[in-house]
Amino acid sequence: MEPRADRTGPDKLFVVYTKFYPERTTILLIHGLGDSGMAWKHIFEDDRFLRYNLVVPDLSGFGRSPDAPDGDYGLETHIRRLNKLVEYFGVTDMVVVGHSMGGALGTLLCKDRRAGHVLGFINVEGNLTPEDTFISGRAIRAERHGRFDRWFNVYMMAWESGEWAEKWPTGGYYAQSLKGCRPEAFLACAGELVEYSNPQAGKSESIVAEIYRKLTVRRVYAHGTESAPQATLRWLDRHRLKRERFDGAQHWVMHDQPGRFYDFLLGFIEKTELGRVR
Asked: Domains in the chain: how many in total?
């Protein structure tokens, strides 16, 4: 598989994508906080996905995409840019796959559904409960104490050669992604992730959890057994929401167990397409 990679679409996002065929299902893959499209690099090594359109963007302010011209890195603004990208490619039917922050964005995108018809959604350890904001919460606390810049530098070093690199060796590529992440984009997204993942006033669940629970598209929450917060898993089970467990995997499920993850993704898409035909 030889994908194309360039800055394209209305916002000139850096996108890795395959040759586009309008009649094919499109897979839109959305990365997480501080990350880039490299999160999904293994899908381009799997020829089984040659029969799909693959679209893997770096969000504004992340990876190799440019800064947001208006300085707006809010989650809803990312959704608007993703919708414009989907419209630019002429997507009709698509499956959305989002990791971590990308899972929260995928949830919002599936609710919005302005561009393209969403057939299904795989949420890979996306934000749902306060326990999912471990890193985002640290960033916001550092900002409140006027130490975000220092915290961000320490965080980057921890991924290059420190504690996080030791804890998550398969996430080593993440250090490279972080080098392309603008601190202001990271901070803005972290703040909104904390806001969207904490219970709403007078309610027991967060904004993003309520939206995810009420989605009508076929959806599955995919998670590793070594990283997903128990509070999030209990919430999913309480509401009888389907989840797929990857034993022994940590937060970057698609890097820890790429073979099994992409087997799962392929099976999910095939069943979703079969349901559409029926």
From this structure: 1
CB-count burial class (<10 Å; 0-12, 13-18, 19+) for 199:
middle
CATH number, residue 220 = 3.40.50.1820
Using the predicted structure, report yes or no on whether residue 249 has a pLDDT greater than 90: yes
The answer to whether residue 276 sits within a structural domain is: no
Kindly report each contact of residues 131-135 with a partner whose C-beta sits within 8 Å and lies 24 or more positions away, as own/partner: 131/229, 131/230, 131/231, 131/232, 132/197, 132/229, 132/232, 133/190, 133/193, 133/194, 133/197, 133/198, 135/33, 135/34, 135/190
| Predicted confidence (pLDDT) per residue in 185-211, tens digit | 999 999 999 999 999 888 889 999 999
Q: What is the pLDDT of residue 40?
A: 97
Confidence of residue 116 (pLDDT cuts 50, 70, 90): low
Residue 200 covered by a domain:
yes
Domain assignment present for residue 220? The answer is yes
How many Å apart are CA 159 and CA 243, to the nearest integer? 29
Distance CA 262, CA 1 (A): 15
* 3 state SS of 32: coil
Pairing type for strands 218-224 and 243-246 reads parallel
Containing domain of residue 128, as a range? 4-271
Could you tell me if residue 278 is inside a domain?
Answer: no
C-alpha distances in angstroms, 52 versus 19, 22, 55, 93?
Answer: 9, 10, 10, 11
d(CA 226, CA 222): 12
Assigned token pair, 79: 């959704």
pTM as predicted: 0.95
